[in-house]
Amino acid sequence: MAPGSNDSQIATIVRQRDEVAPLEGAFVITVADGPDKGKTTTLDETHASRLLIGQSPACDLRLTDREVSRRHAALEITAGGLRVVDLGSTNGTFVDRVKIREAELLGGEIVRVGSTVLTIEHESSVPVAPLTTAGRFGKILGTSREMRRLYPLCERIAASAVPVILEGETGTGKEVLAESLHEMGPRATAPFVVFDCTTAPPSLVESELFGHERGAFTGAVSQRRGVFEQAQGGTLLIDEIGDLDLALQPKLLRAIERGEIRRVGGDKWIKVDVRVLAATRRDLDREVQAGRFRDDLFHRLAVARVELPPLRHRGGDVAILARQIWRDLGGDERRLPPEVLLKWEDYQWPGNVRELRNAVARQLALGDLADLQRGGFGEPAPADASRVTSSPGVDAIERVIGLGLPFVQAREKLMQEFERRYVERVLAAHGGDVATAAAASGIGRRYFQMIRARTR
Questions:
Q1: pTM of the shown model
Q2: How far is CA 280 from CA 99, 124, 167, 284, 336, in A?
């Protein structure tokens, strides 16, 4: 999310939310029985993300119990206590002999995973450091406790050079966070390059990553640098890394470990200095267990990990995000209807922040005509919706209404016209520079380019 919110306004919201604190103290999780008996860990308000339980090296409470899944269950602090969530484990998660998918704990419960028994105790006397009062990290905006727990971790990660895995559902803002980690770190003036494993044809992924020499394959009419060389000295985000072909994973591992790549059709190794961030919507532990992702590559990437919470768990963030998006899109905040904000706050947002941005853009463009299907939010305009052309003095809305189209088709045409005009205006304001225009719009460069491409 691009900067632009009033800092004093954000600080006020943070103070108000801190007045409603969760249970004081910390929760102590102890292995009471099982192969790891005696192991203990503490979870409090400042823990950056969910505490993961399982066999994986990525887990905070790592168990050797063979009946426990790699990523078995998660614990997280809530306003009312401690939430335990089963992560689709093979053998299930039990609280006091009841098999659960999700449950709220207060302390004093027994949790069983595999053949391991965990005791959960709430210690109110344990001192806990206060949460940061920051309301954003770079372009990431959020004053909820779930987000403020992440900011100190993000600051430390940004200052380092280690590989990072960014996890989270589709639309939670992983690419925007990656940009923020780059821009808040020592490589900020160097390139930031994004490669999406789902967008390139499988036969060309290796060439996209490492480049190719002229004549390396049919159609290779000239030498081409891959994204590793393009990101030299800067940061490379490999998006949806869980979709990377298994045969290419050893080559990627070598590039990360040794800092060298070889172009397709080439015979020499090229040194590269690139920080690698990897984003995924998948559970990579499950992919490793299924044999679709290499364990050694996972270990190399998971030096640090950040799990972005879904919007539905970010209490109170919908309104502040919606207002910021509305302002970023050029809207007058006084014209954002309170009843619409209330509907948005009650919605579950399966598409997360990306879906919220689309809903705000639709509301701004269509006003009372905004579609109320799917809980009030409708689908984004399809890429092939025809462009609306307005004659001088004729408003686009009036022109579309005059066409006599069905409601859904009229809405789609108007949404695409809004996107086209917005992209043209913001590009013109920033001299055609896509990176600057995307930053001013508060969205990732790749998403901005997607909008631009579908409105041409």
A1: 0.75
A2: 29, 36, 5, 8, 34
